Amino acid sequence: xxxxxxxxHLSEESDVSDGDEEVEEDDGSMSSIxxxxxxxxxxxxxxxxxxSEEPLGRNDxxxxxxxxxxxxxRPRLLPDIVRVAYLLSPNPKIMEHALANKDAEDYNAxxxxxxxxxxxxxxxxxxxxxxxxxxxxxxxxxxxxxFQQKRGIFSNKKIWFIAARSDCNAxxxxxxxxxxxxxxxxxxxxxxxxxxxxxGEAERNWKQMKRQSKGHRGKLTQEKQKMQGTIxxxxxxxxxxxxxxxxxxxxxxxxxADFDECKFGEYCEGDIVPRPKTPIRKxxxxxxxxxxxxxxxxxxxxxxxxxxxxxGGLRFKDVDKDGRVGYTLKDNCAVLQKCYKxxxxxxxxxxxxxxxxxxxxxxxxxxxxxDQFYHQQSNELWELFELPAxxxxxxxxxxxxxxxxxxxxxxxxxxxxxDAWNRELPFNGLREEEWAGSSDEEDGNA
Length: 446
Prior knowledge:
single chain, alpha+beta, five-stranded antiparallel β-sheet, 14 helices, 9% strand
């Protein structure tokens, strides 16, 4: 219960709610909240959609949808009794949170509940009724101030040791330490904090009783219907326990120690521990053995995908362009190129019979349009690197990411190569160890 209250307030602190922020309740004594089922969910959905004033488009994101639904159902999750129980919780952490997140609507809820629960019903004269209501509110606020500041009759430190215990029942605490010493707050707190907010259990038992009063059992007495309804509800409990035990046979998915890392307290207070920064990717800064392959003119999509996975999304300082920062496309930076062996145009990779194609690395510079083909743009905006012949690229990448945590650069010998051959779908090409010592007369285009 306390967890639910603090979560509601934490959501308000992060601007999840609108300007008039509201809070939820806490009470160590109260059972779990069970939300009321809507009779017409679709009508609520349409009403919530109309409440949203955000235009559709880029702002129509998951966050805006969550905020829209939260604002729609928020009044139902924060009735007056929830708000007042939050104000009157004796737990020190909840009290500290309530003081730091004061909301005028909480005090308005307390005023409404005072009139409903504490105002004498025999007051018929409007003037006398208003005067009695004003006296009740004034006395309550004075006692509430002493309660929140822990002064006067609440200055005894011993009672706050009891309140700080996780098993402290708020209604019982107020009955022991507040009711004998206050005029309004003690009695009011006992009534508010002892209320059961969820009626789901009673509704389920009543459902069982209605089943017993139909058909051939319609003439059963109320006592027999009650007994059979109780037996049926007990059976449902046992069946649910058996189902949960069966689902947990796979083992415990997590325990309390797993949440210590989040630095959250018992009432979900605190901030998430900043995790140590770890490199988001490992880059092997050398031309690995699996990269030295030749292909047919159709290429190999698997190789291109792996090539782009290694080199895509990198940045570097181009020493040949006065330190100009270049980058590679994240999705596809592999360009199929033809191998040449002539004197005028010769590649580092010499063509092999039946193959003669390799993948070059496409690098881009500021102004490059990723929506257009590279050869349709100015040569100043892109360049193709034949990596076996352009080893300086690895040094430029290492220089750019020096001292940065985004990418961890490994030089040859500092880590193992990627084993591209240990795969169910091998690359459809010719590996370097299969190349002939010299190329044939014609380039392979087949």
